[in-house]
Write a structure and sequence with these properties.
Keywords: Carbohydrate metabolism, Glycosidase, Hydrolase, Polysaccharide degradation, Secreted, Signal. This protein has 128 residues and is α+β, with helices and mostly antiparallel strands. 28% of the residues lie in helices and 28% in strands. It has one domain. The protein has helices at residues 8-12, 53-58, 99-113, 115-124; strands at residues 3-7, 23-28, 33-43, 64-67, 70-73, 82-87.
C-alpha cells in the first residue's frame, strides 16, 4: 500500500493539519510521476518524506540495492525531488486501504486543488 510518514509532532499537536489516515499525492519532479497515498505512520519530528516501498515504486524508484549479495532497502529518492501535497481532514472510514481505494478517494481532492498543472506550478516555485 502506498503510504507516507508524517512527523510525530504533527499527529500529537492540537492544531489543524494532516493526521494518520489522511490522503495525499506525491509528485516526482525528475520523471513526472504522480502517486496517491495515505498517511500511514509517524516518524522523526520535523521530517516529512519517508514512504513505503509501494510509494517508491509508484514514483518510479526501485528502493532496493544489492549489497554484499543481499537485496536491502536504501535511502532512495532525493529529498528535493518529491513534492508532497496533503489533504488534512480527508481520512476515510474504511477497514483497510489498497492503492485503488486510495486513488479513488484522493483523486477528486487533487482535482479540486487544481490538478497536475497547479502542482507543477507549486513545485517550480520551490527551492531546487
Amino acid at each position: 500500500m502506498p503510504f507516507a510518514v508524517i512527523p510525530t509532532t504533527w499527529q500529537r499537536s492540537g492544531t489543524p493539519g494532516p493526521k494518520l489516515g489522511d490522503l495525499g499525492v506525491a509528485y516526482r519532479r525528475s520523471n513526472g510521476k504522480l502517486a496517491y497515498f495515505v498517511v500511514g505512520d509517524t516518524g522523526p519530528r520535523n521530517k516529512l518524506g519517508e514512504g513505503s516501498v509501494a510509494l517508491h515504486q509508484a514514483l518510479g524508484n526501485d528502493p532496493f540495492v544489492d549489497r554484499f549479495g543481499k537485496r536491502r532497502a536504501y535511502k532512495g529518492i532525493g529529498a528535493r525531488d518529491v513534492v508532497y501535497l496533503l489533504f488534512p481532514g480527508s481520512a476515510q472510514a474504511v477497514a483497510s486501504f489498497d492503492a485503488i481505494l486510495i486513488e479513488r478517494a484522493a483523486k477528486p481532492l487533487f482535482e479540486r486543488f487544481g490538478g497536475i498543472d497547479r502542482l507543477k506550478a507549486c513545485a517550480a516555485s520551490l527551492v531546487p
